[in-house]
Amino acid sequence: MKLERLISMIYKLLNHEVLSASMLAEEFHVSPRTIYRDIDVLCAAGFPVISYQGINGGYGIMDGYKMDKSLLGSYDVDALITVLSSLSTVFNDKRAQGTIERLQTIGPKHQIPSLAVDFETSRTAPDALGHLRTSIKKRMVVRFDYINVKNERTTRDIEPMWLHFKYRNWYVYGFCRSRCDYREFRLSRMLNLILTQDYFQPHHVEPKEAASLNTDWSNQLQDVVIQILPTALAEALDQFQQADKQFHDDGSMTMSIPVHEPLEARWLWSILLSFGSGAEVLKPIALRGVLKEQLQHTLKLYEEV
Questions:
Q1: Which of 114, 169, 228, 248 is deepest in the core (most CB within 10 A)?
Q2: Quick one: average pLDDT of 226-254?
Q3: What is the pLDDT of residues 199-211, one digit of tens each?
């Protein structure tokens, strides 16, 4: 415990100009007297710790003292700090924060970050990510209610293997005991998640379905062509960043989006309908009929208005 405290103190002193004994004592939950002894140990070990007197006094590392930067370049350090900062916020991980402080000692000082990552955790239940990460580390079975794409509600017990962030959403992949097979679940559709006291053995065999996560659908895609009016340009660009785009003199835009089975893609319907009168599907013709049917069902809900 003392060794870990000494190592942490070194990194903290490297990352701050001056730290008082009382601040260090509060940080490490020890007495100021213990901090004084620790400083003596660091000095005896060859670390250039300097004592500053006065109201704002304390301890610091001699100017110019640097750790070896040969293992990582500044680009590597910046990228690691950015990712770890985002993850430490998402998971409230104090250990990640400690790693960040160690990386900062070998990065350029007072540099303005050139990159930021926001994992949009507001979309996810506050405790879900933390519980799932704990269950993965401790190999604990989790139980939750799940709403699938057909709007069916079932209760699932899974042995989680990893968390995956894609398409602006978090997913968990693992072995579903209810289906006796590997499955991927979207966290936003998971309800009443709990950690059970049932533990599972590590998965030594790579699941066959893991390969299907990267299935090449290129031969099964169909182009959806949409006419976007000037009033919906920003929304369309936000939703379909990788689409082929053609701008017109009147300010409108035509988009071509490759979609797997667009007549069954409910996610696509909801996006297109959210544009209101700002977008019109040109192809495939059958998709126009699907959207019209959806609108007619919606209108029935408001017939009395």
A1: 228
A2: 92
A3: 998 776 555 544 4
Token pair listed for 32: 């100021």
Least confident of 53-57, 166-170, 296-300: 166-170
The CATH T-level fold of domain 218-300 is Alpha-Beta Plaits (3.30.70)
Is the pLDDT score of 100 beyond 90? no
The per-residue pLDDT of the chain, averaged, comes to 80
Burial class (CB in 10 A: 0-12, 13-18, 19+), 12: buried
Confidence band (pLDDT; 50, 70, 90) for 192?
A: very high
Q: Tell me the three state secondary structure of residue 305.
A: coil
Burial of 63 (0-12, 13-18, 19+ CB in 10 A): exposed
pLDDT above 90 coverage of the chain, percent? 36
69 confidence band (pLDDT: 50, 70, 90): very low
Closest alpha carbon to 64 in 43, 83, 48 = 48
3-class DSSP state of 300: helix
The three-class DSSP label of residue 3 is helix
Helices 2-15 and 21-28 pack at an angle, to 10 degrees, of: 130
CATH of domain 123-214: 2.30.30
> How many other CB atoms sit within 10 Å of the CB of residue 253?
20
**CATH code reported for the domain at 2-61:** 1.10.10.10
Could you give the residue ranges of the DSSP H alpha helices within 242-284?
A: 266-274
Q: Order of strands, edge to edge, in the sheet holding 181-186?
A: 181-186, 169-176, 153-166, 140-147, 190-199
Domains of the chain, residue spans: 2-61, 123-214, 218-300
DSSP annotation of 189:
G
Helix (H, G, I), strand (E, B) or coil at 301: coil
Supply 83's token pair: 């990712």
Kindly tell me if the per-residue pLDDT of 106 is higher than 70.
Answer: no
Smallest Cα–Cα separation from 142: which of 172, 180, 98?
172
